[in-house]
Amino acid sequence: MYKIVKPFLFLFPPEFAHGLAMALATIQIKMLYTIGITKVFYPNLTERVKTNVFGLEFPNRLGLAAGFDKNGKYLDILQFMGFGFVEVGTVTPKPQKGNPKPRLFRLPKDEALINRMGFNNEGVEVLADRLKNFYNEKDLIVGGNIGKNKDTPNDKAVDDYLICFEKLHEYVDYFVVNVSSPNTPNLRSLQEKGPLKHILSTLQASNLTKEKQKPILLKIAPDLNEPQIDDIIEIIQETKIAGAILANTTIDRSGLLTDSKVVDAMGNGGLSGKPLRQKTLNMQKYFHQKSGGKIPFIGVGGIGDAESANNTLEAGASLIQIYTGFIYGGPKILESIVKGLKR
Known about the structure:
There is one protein chain. The protein is of the alpha/beta class. The chain is about 40% helix and about 15% strand. Strands 3-4-7-8-9-10-12-13 form an eight-stranded parallel β-barrel, surrounded by six helices.
């Protein structure tokens, strides 16, 4: 069905098409659910043996990366599509509109996207309320990706992360600290050793006071060099957070099939999709080797089929996430990836 509607959806600007596609999926799934034939279109993708990572039991190893469902609006639909886990956000303490439109662009020749969304979201209070009322029928694991507001100076960033952490703690299964988006001014400087250690230590200290502690992961950029990755590994070990997500979008534009003039006209933003595959894979292999395989991580970046998913697992990832591959391939690729994963 997605193959039929995809050319129609791609006639519209990406943000509008995203909302339209999810509206159509919501109508379809609710109709199928009402008449009891949801499994005909959306088979159960729970693996025979559930996967335990970060102390959590995941229905399967395939998740949806942050950015797709920023405000937690589609969790009831996404669980029926077959995701084992969904990451909501990035969310900030206060609502914010994000960067001016247009801010999301397709590169069909590359099966890629460029975005400079800028953490547009409805704010942590709205997200917390929505998660509180989510009916989790399929034991979906929900992650909370947290960030800072654009107008919060970096020396106060820890306060924003802590607000989001406290507000969502009761409602998510794990947290992701996003300091690696290229679309919030100066955000990536928080990946430097001092600021990053301060943020993670503060969150972990709060976490240890809770009756039920939640895993904290760090999402980093694929544009870091090896010494910077070494610092990240050291900080993760020192702060004793649960793991990492490798990796966010890239500012690199090399090797694209799309005409360079077209790409330049799109402007700044993070690139995701197939062109990110090898860059991210190299980073994942280095991280796994350098950490001695002792830091579990979620692999994301350029995954669009079972082969690329298995390559990510072989690079050391415990779980995988998709985003751009889902945009181009539709819900059907979930089944092909989950059933094609090596045991």
